[in-house]
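1st attempt posting a full record on here, be nice pls
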Amino acid sequence: MRRTARLLAGTALAVAAAAPAHAAGSGRLDVYPSTVAPGGQVSVNTAVCGDSGAATGDAGAVGAGQFTLAPSTHEGEAIGQFRVPPSAQPGTYEIVARCAEGDRQVTGDLVVALSAAYEQVQPRGSVKTGVGGGLGPDPVQTAAGVAALAVAAAGGTWLLHRRARGDGI
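the predicted structure (as tokens):
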């Protein structure tokens, strides 16, 4: 029993010790914003290049060419920027960054869309729930509804007042 426990504990420690080494080799290239209109400015950052942080970016797939990622003070990340050409066609493009030291490379996706395709549209109109709305387009119906509520409230108050006095209903 102890032999099995030691074997399992040793295996768990070996896996835990190997996990950080594997995690350091993998990473991602963060692209902000991830969806941009042609002519827009894009920022990219990654922490995969380690302490030196320098990297060369390649946005040639979208037509922006190469750019530099410089080390920053934010948790050892390298940050770079490029502008999407105004002639870029809508689609998804792969952006690549290669670390200056070593042979590490990381990629991220950039979506180019027409400006109207990703702008937030504010809703207008009413919701068709079948229950009806509180305020309709007809001011006469709205006034009649408010008057009916006022009469009901006045009548309820009068009945409660009579009951409190003991007059009965």
